[in-house]
Write a structure and sequence with these properties.
The chain has about 150 residues and is mostly beta strands. Helix content is about 15%, strand content about 35%.
């Protein structure tokens, strides 16, 4: 089994198209998502980005912008998301099933010109998940893909 990764950031979106609020912890609700987050139920309950993939996209653009501009809920490091559809991502004591790749939208270019295109390859835009377990996740929690 590979070394675990780490939960680097948590953002909660109060309303659709609203700001992404940084948090030190979040409560996950099975089958719903993050308590207080605008996206509840459905297939995109939680969105996750990989720090290395984010950094690679910014390197392609040649500029920087805060990772909250991606509008994902979680940023992880040390775990590659590419090709992980159908896998289970464990964050702390909670499990998230990865439903697929999150496609970057036009809002990425509003944050930084060229970012949408830079996020299109190799799952750089992250993945979307459904929550399998109730629980609280915290910055610094261990993250790993289960086999």
């Amino acid at each position: 089994m590979s070394a675990p990764g780490r939960l680097e950031a948590i953002w909660i979106k109060r309303a659709h198209m609203g700001p992404m609020d940084a948090a030190s912890e979040a409560e996950l609700v099975a089958g719903r998502g993050i308590r207080g987050n605008a996206d509840q139920g459905r297939r995109r309950q939680v969105t996750v980005i990989d720090r290395d993939a984010w950094d690679a996209a910014l390197a392609d653009v040649g500029e920087g912008v805060a990772p909250s501009a991606r509008r994902a809920n979680l940023m992880i490091s040390g775990v590659e998301l590419a090709g992980s559809r159908g896998r289970v991502l464990r964050v702390g004591g909670c499990r998230l099933e990865i439903g697929g790749e999150t496609r970057p939208c036009y809002r990425m270019d509003e944050a930084l010109e060229g970012l949408q295109n830079a996020l299109r390859k190799d799952w750089r835009g992250g993945g979307f998940c459904v929550v399998l377990d109730d629980g609280v996740i915290r910055l610094g929690d261990e993250v790993r893909l289960e086999s």
